[in-house]
Amino acid sequence: MTILVKYGGNAMTDSDLQVAFAQDIVELHAAGLLPVVVHGGGPQISAMLKRLSMDSEFIGGLRKTTPEILEVVRMVLVGQVQRELVGLINAHGPLAVGLSGEDAGLFTAERRGAIVDGQEVDIGLVGDVVLVREQIVTNLLVEGYIPVVSTLARGVDGQVYNVNADTAAAALAAAIGAKTMIVLTDVEGLYTDWPASTEVISTINAADLAALLPSLESGMVPKMEGCLRAVRGGVAKARVIDGRKVHAVRDDVSGASVGGTTVVAS
Q1: Of 7, 41, 85, 218, whose CA is between 20 and 30 Å from 17?
Q2: Which of 172, 220, 233 is nearest to 194 (CA)?
Q3: Rounded to 5 degrees, what angle do the CA atoms 93, 238, 212 make?
Q4: SS3 of 211, please?
Q5: Residue 258: predicted pLDDT
Q6: Is 60 left (phi over 0), alpha (psi -120 to 50) or beta?
Q7: Under a CB-based contact definition with an 8 Å cutoff, are residues 152 and 101 in contact?
Q8: Statement: the pTM of the whole predicted model exceeds 0.85
Q9: What is the rounded distance in angstroms from the CA atom of residue 135 to the CA atom of residue 126?
Q10: 8 A C-beta contact, residue 93 and residue 57
């Protein structure tokens, strides 16, 4: 069974959670599952931009990406975050293989904007995946490896784009026929009425989620868009779980944890 895990949030910045996450992925592999990791890097990118005294802003939950910021995004995602994660997994054996969405044309993107108050706003070199050449990932899985994917993509116009990791994860999960997509976040799940309520929606179908999207806090929109895209693309379920918990992925897959939000097609 193929499981795609979108790695982000606190799990990427806390050293104990980083180590636990790598252990979880190795344990899934050892249990006969086929894990694929798609990672973000928002906190690390923001930290590097701050060090370089470069301004950055988020619009509609997406980072506005100038050509100068794109250079930093590529450097951090592929040269830092991916390398660290591959190293943590490979501390347990030669399993992880790092890929960028640019590699072998894994992802092809089209430029997209952000939706603010119902209007599309230009946010620079940000793309959305429109084509996945999944063979490179499926071939690695057949050979027993764990793909670790950074979400950059070459556009249909030849331009390289920064692609939101949640939506890229969904596109890849659907393309490889993943049974489940797990999204790590810094919250307990999708709240019924944030911030007025901290009650978590345990299960929601695609139609109800689509209706709810416009009212969500901007940071949750890409995550839930990704879940929606995944289940509409044939993934049986998408899970949004709290990545601040040690061994969150292992416990979620094994059924040892409670909480989180499950998105299903119907």
Answers
A1: 218
A2: 220
A3: 145
A4: helix
A5: 80
A6: left
A7: yes
A8: yes
A9: 24
A10: no
